[in-house]
Amino acid sequence: MRFLSYLISGISLGSVYAIIALGYTMVYGIAKMLNFAHGDVIMVGGFSAFTIISMLGYPPALGVLAAIVICTALGVIIEKVAYRPLRNASSSLAVLITAIGVSYLLQNLALLIFGSSTKSFESVVNIPPLKLADGQVNITGETIVTILACIVVMVMLTLFINRTKAGQAMLAVSEDKGAAQLMGINVNGTIALTFAIGSALAAVAGVLLCSAYPTLSPTTGAMPGIKAFVAAVFGGIGSIPGALIGGLLLGVIETLGKAYISSQLSDVIVFGILIVVLVVKPTGILGRKIQEKV
Amino acid sequence: MKKIKLSRQSRSDLITYGIILLLSLVLFFVGQSSYQLKGLLVPVCAQIILAVSLNLTVGILGELSLGHAGFMCIGTFVGASFSIYMEQFIHIPALRFFLALLVGALSAGIMGFLIGLPVLRLKGDYLAIVTLAFGEIIKNLINMVYLGYDGNGLHFSMNDTASLGLAEDGVVIIKGPQGVTGTPADSNFGIGVLLVLLTVFIVLNLVHSRDGRAIMAIRDNEIAAESVGIHITKYKLMAFTISAALAGLAGSFYAHNYNNIKASTNNFGYNMSIMILVFVVLGGIGSIRGSVIAATVLYMLPEILRFMSQYRMLVYAIVLIVMMLFTWSPKAQAWKAVQLARCKKKLQPLTDKFRKKSSDELKKEGE
After folding, report:
1. What is the ipTM, given to two decimal places?
2. Residue B154, domain extent
3. Gap from B313 CA to chain A (nearest CA, Å)
């Protein structure tokens, strides 16, 4: 029974990782860059919701909506100001270091505005916990909502990419930018749209993360961000089902590792997995191998 | 008297050494002005060594490493533990300190080699994230280590102080999250300057050597380098290991300045790695001289401009972004080229005049 409740909380954590990993994977697939600032967009989402709900006293639904809008705008602005000028730069290091700079900028802005003290986040979920097997397995409302949100996001995203013109354009751009442009696809617009969707997902993940683990500080997003990247690599970067599988596996492994091995070692286990995956199968579980041409 | 002719390379190296000596002289006098500034003199030397060694990975090898603080962390804890344990056997402080520096550098170098072996097969983003992961793993593991000694030798545990099973007279060296306590204060500014010179000497000589040229060839085009017979893994590992060893040296030196050191995110974690990267980027990727100057100025400035300390990190972040955009964006590069051409055009009459003059002189000499 204990194992079951650990498993469920692991799936819940994994669902959050999966939603964040989706943002990483989409951006990586289309712009071929590691968006280091993605984790900090999660934090911005958390703080936006916190400001609207706890400081201004508006209803939670409005807070979530505001967080999504703010993060979407932020994602598009970051892409336009910091990443787009470097898209054709001769060194791939340039955009990576810029992304680190953006991540640092967001963290320190939050530090200046909200201070370094940890805020307690009011959960946006108002569902009573579900008790199974005579109260031996306790599933909180946050867990249910998180898992449901992950499923909804996955289904919507898959439909969007396979059934709409914009989604098809995304696939085309990630395959070959030049050819896509020749087919009349607005490459800049498509990449901006990808950043917008990724950042909106980050906002959702931020609110869910802060509801499940009710603390908020300027570095809240950093660790989940890196772990979600591990999840994206684990599942195969660039692949949307891969992000789901990687996220869920990572969440379960982390939670079980925390419960049965050592809570201090859980980060070490997660990063150990990343290293093993990258060394043994760098393309991840569902990734495709790309041959480098001379 | 015969004039000594220097190649352009050695002249450039001499300028670098000169800059270091000049900077250390300035630092020495700045350090006399207040107690706080004096306390920064040893750490600033460690920062310079870290920046120069990271530049070897980022600028010369062309791979982004985000785990540099992890190697420093190893050097710090191994070096400090060595000194504390050896205090009973080696009674000459200078010899003990020298050995501690060596052991710190060696341990970090070995770790760098072991990590580099599997990891250097990866490139770019992946390498960056894996080195970041290793840095965090090292920091987390060191926070779990308990180490002590008594009459029977060293005791080691991953749980707590009690499980070390020390005798009555035992001494705890590393106490998990509370860090290492009791390191002898052997570091001083003079040794720091010597170590900085040694680091720069090692890196510059590597860069100028055949091996260094091979490493830079890999940076410029890996496939082309491989096709002319350069052993990619060997040279990548060489650069990475040397870089790690120098970080360990800096760590060991840094450790002997403080009685107690804890491994937290700010001094050995991700944040520190980013700080060092900022030094390297601002000094100019690949420029050893630049790293030295940037590390010195950026480390000392916040202390001098105390009132700005709140905004320091914010300013760093903005400078990092602007710097990258300005140096690497194709548009900015084109703009710079246009400006340069315009400048040259403006100076054209002057250079023409100069050329004419010198050619006239030549003619006169000919006559």
Report:
1. 0.79
2. 146-177
3. 7
